[in-house]
Design a protein that fits this description.
Strand order of the largest sheet: 1-2
Largest sheet: 2 strands, antiparallel
Shape: elongated
Number of helices: 4
Number of strands: 2
Radius of gyration: 18 Å
Strand content: 5-15%
Distance between the termini: 49 Å
């Protein structure tokens, strides 16, 4: 892969440009804390990017936690988060309590404006 990017000849190693952070499985497979669920809902509402409570949501929770707790780990200003999909975890009602807290708030993420609207129940 480094060769395809033109970095092989420069002596750059994958470990120089890639940092895989693990250890954020939370309560376990398919189990989420309220804090994790609230972050997932916030990301979806403010950015339009939907993350699930099984894989991507836990991964983004870990990334945000690392950025807050260990900012020196992230050198430079460019961070790549790979969203792996996994939206099926959203359909088992585990997000209902989190979403009901903010159901009336709709974010026009395209231009960053927040609008209060009553959504149908």
């Amino acid at each position: 892969m480094l060769q395809e990017c033109g970095l092989y000849e420069t002596g750059v190693r994958a470990s120089d440009i890639l940092d895989i952070v693990d250890g954020y499985k939370g309560l376990g497979y398919g189990l989420s804390t309220d804090e994790e669920l609230e972050l997932m809902a916030s990301i979806s509402q403010t950015s339009g990017i939907i993350v699930d409570p099984v894989y991507s949501g836990k991964a983004v929770f870990g990334m945000v936690s690392e950025m807050k707790n260990n900012p020196n780990r992230f050198k430079g200003k460019r961070i790549l988060f790979i969203h792996t999909g996994g939206l099926l975890g959203l359909f088992d009602n585990r997000m209902d309590s989190v979403l009901s807290k903010s159901a009336s708030k709709v974010v026009a993420w395209k231009d960053g404006r927040t609008q209060d609207r009553q959504l149908p129940a």
